[in-house]
């Protein structure tokens, strides 16, 4: 997935923090594919990349204002409320993003790796 791009009517951008993690994951999957083209899809990194794409395309860009993406007070009370969070991978991974309903823009900020 290249950034910026338009998904489900939203302009999707990647902050350098997210882009770095995402690019490393893509590179890892490409290396796995080169070493074992028949079985790389069974590897954890490949599955994680597929889930990241699914989360972005089928969840975040469908309804970024979903209450499921609110993080409560986990980032401190009152501050960082502009950031939303999606959990995936059995709760092991989190992807933080911001969005503007008015501008139809989503910025993918950070993903733990």
Architecture overview:
The chain has 113 residues and is α+β, with helices and mostly antiparallel strands. It has one domain (5-111): RelE-like (YaeB-like fold), CATH 3.30.2310. The protein is 33% helix and 25% strand. The chain has two helices and five strands. The protein has helices at residues 16-35, 44-60; strands at residues 5-7, 10-14, 84-88, 93-100, 105-111. A hairpin with a 4-residue loop joins strand 4 and strand 5 (105-111). Helix 1 (16-35) crosses helix 2 (44-60). The mean pLDDT is 92.
Task: Describe the protein's topology.
Blueprint: E1 5-7, E2 10-14, H1 16-35, H2 44-60, E3 84-88, E4 93-100, E5 105-111
Parallel strand pairs: 2-5
Antiparallel strand pairs: 1-2, 3-4, 4-5
GO molecular function: hydrolase activity; RNA nuclease activity
Protein name: Toxin YhaV
Enzyme class: hydrolase
Distance between the termini: 18 Å
CATH topology, what is it called? YaeB-like fold
Radius of gyration: 15 Å
H/I helix tally? 2
Mean pLDDT: 92
List the quaternary state of the chains: single chain
* Largest sheet composition: 5 strands, mixed
Spatial shape: globular
Question: Can you tell me the residue ranges where pLDDT is under 50 for at least 5 consecutive residues?
Answer: none
GO molecular function: hydrolase activity; RNA nuclease activity
Protein name: Toxin YhaV
Enzyme class: hydrolase
Organism: Shigella sonnei
């Amino acid at each position: 997935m290249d950034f910026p791009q338009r998904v489900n009517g939203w302009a999707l951008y990647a902050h350098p923090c997210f882009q770095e993690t995402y690019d490393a994951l893509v590179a890892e999957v490409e290396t796995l594919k080169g070493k074992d083209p028949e079985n790389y899809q069974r590897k954890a990194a490949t599955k994680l990349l597929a889930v990241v794409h699914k989360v972005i395309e089928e969840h975040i860009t469908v309804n970024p204002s979903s209450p499921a993406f609110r993080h409560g007070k986990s980032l401190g009370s009152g501050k960082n409320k502009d950031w939303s969070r999606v959990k995936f991978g059995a709760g092991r991974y989190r992807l933080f993003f911001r969005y503007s309903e008015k501008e139809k823009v989503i910025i993918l900020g950070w993903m733990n790796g």
